[in-house]
Specification:
46% of the residues lie in helices and 15% in strands. Strand 4 and strand 5 form a beta hairpin.
Length: 421
């Protein structure tokens, strides 16, 4: 019996050594837009759990959009259903911070020491800060670019090697493409869903959403008037139809739209969907003011929500891994987003040679010096503000209101939704 007991003890030790321990920390993770991010999340989480066998990631049902994602988190706040980590649209970080939901990542970064060694520069860190507080780490960053069907451009008499550089040139070329007939449309400008593409026009004209003190609406000024005038001319002259976002995308994939304006984040899916149907090209988006014009930074940041100390340590490991060079090296080729990590952008191990081999991705990269934060409206009505702007833009696209009328109506409605000072 003594020998048998000794055998069992030896076997138990052997089993402990031979088999990995069960995960002792499980993190629930939520993210939006599975069409963009599911494959990316699967790849990053698999690699992370291989390197951190004591941490298990389980994903909550993803939200279809950033807007649905933030509303879900706001509903779940303070309940057992709230995830441990989430990925929040950059323009909604302010909303969760005003509810004091995110864990301050400042102390975690300070403990790491020189975070530039992790690829986190001050510029990149500021993308996910709210009034100086590090509420997250930028995970995916994008800017708006022009996608174009080089075959239709050529058929319309344009030069695919010299895409339009101004909005006047875009509108003129769009008109020529629409004139080809056979159900072909000139332009698809992604104005639906949120205020991001309106920001592209507004910021591109040198404008801003609110005044510096955030007490008054600024988007209805001269820059905003120029922005909606461009949208109006796209409709009247450039061949911009009344498309839903999904319909516009499918029409472009099918070779029925000449010029499409949307996020770099859709690039990988666009390449896959277009296949060999036509010669797909990309280029910088025009700026109304080439000197002072800026572009909104789209995308999201990873945010830690759990208040459990042990989970916070595990969550930080995942956050810095997902936003680190490996995560960025998965996000950029898998989507089209621009690098959110400087080590990933520069190192041959990650993305150093990627842009040389994949020229369609260069347009977004070349615009990074123009990127400014996607504006986050103050107060709890951020989603309603966005809906108000989009609804009034739709009146311009549908030609139910003059551009300045729709702009002023949007401004009046937004004023009522802002916090009272």
């Amino acid at each position: 019996m003594k020998h048998f007991t000794k055998f069992l003890a030896t076997a138990a030790v052997a089993m402990t050594v031979s088999f990995p321990a069960f995960a002792d920390t499980t993190l629930t993770v939520h993210y939006p837009m599975p069409g963009f991010f599911k494959d990316v999340m699967d790849t990053i989480s698999k690699k992370f759990m291989e390197e951190n066998p004591d941490i298990k990631l389980q994903f909550a049902n993803p939200s279809a959009t950033y807007e649905e994602g933030i509303q879900l988190i706001m509903r779940q706040a303070g309940t057992a259903e709230m995830p441990d980590l989430t990925f929040i649209g950059l323009n909604r970080l302010r909303m969760v911070q005003e509810r004091d939901l995110p864990v301050d990542l400042g102390p975690f970064l300070a403990k790491e020491g020189d975070v530039s060694k992790l690829g986190f520069s001050d510029t990149l860190l500021k993308i996910a800060q709210v009034k100086g507080k590090q509420v997250g780490l930028a995970f995916a960053m994008s800017n708006p670019i022009m996608y174009y069907n080089a075959d239709l451009v050529k058929a319309a008499g344009g030069n695919p090697d010299q895409p339009p550089k101004t909005w006047d040139e875009v509108i003129a070329l769009g008109a020529k493409i629409k004139a080809l007939g056979n159900g072909v449309e000139g332009i698809d400008f992604r104005w639906q869903g949120d205020d991001w593409m309106f920001s592209a026009l507004l910021f591109g004209a040198g404008g801003q959403m609110l005044s510096d003190d955030e007490k008054s609406v600024a988007f209805a000024g001269p820059e905003g008037e120029k922005a909606v005038a461009v949208l109006d001319q796209m409709v009247k002259k450039g061949g911009l139809p009344i498309f839903t976002a999904a319909a516009g995308e499918q029409a472009f994939f099918a070779g029925k739209v000449g010029l499409e304006f949307k996020t770099t984040g859709a690039l990988r899916n666009t390449i896959k969907s277009v296949g060999n149907k036509f010669d797909l090209r990309t280029a910088q988006i025009p700026l109304i003011d080439p000197v002072n014009g800026k572009l909104p930074t789209g995308g999201n940041a990873i945010v830690i929500l759990t208040r459990d100390a042990a989970k916070q340590q595990a969550a930080w490991k995942f956050a810095k891994f997902a936003a680190g060079p490996y995560g960025s090296s998965v996000v950029v080729p898998g989507t089209g987003y621009v690098p959110n990590n400087e080590l990933a952008a520069k190192s041959p191990e990650y993305l150093g040679n990627f842009y040389k081999e994949n020229p369609l991705f260069v347009a977004g990269l070349s615009q990074m010096n123009r990127m400014v934060p996607w504006y986050a409206f103050p107060g709890t009505n951020g989603v309603k503000v966005t809906q108000t702007i989009v609804e009034n833009l739709s009146r311009v696209v549908e030609q139910q209101a003059k551009p300045t009328e729709a702009l002023n109506d949007a401004a009046d409605e937004v004023k009522k939704l802002l916090p009272r000072n």
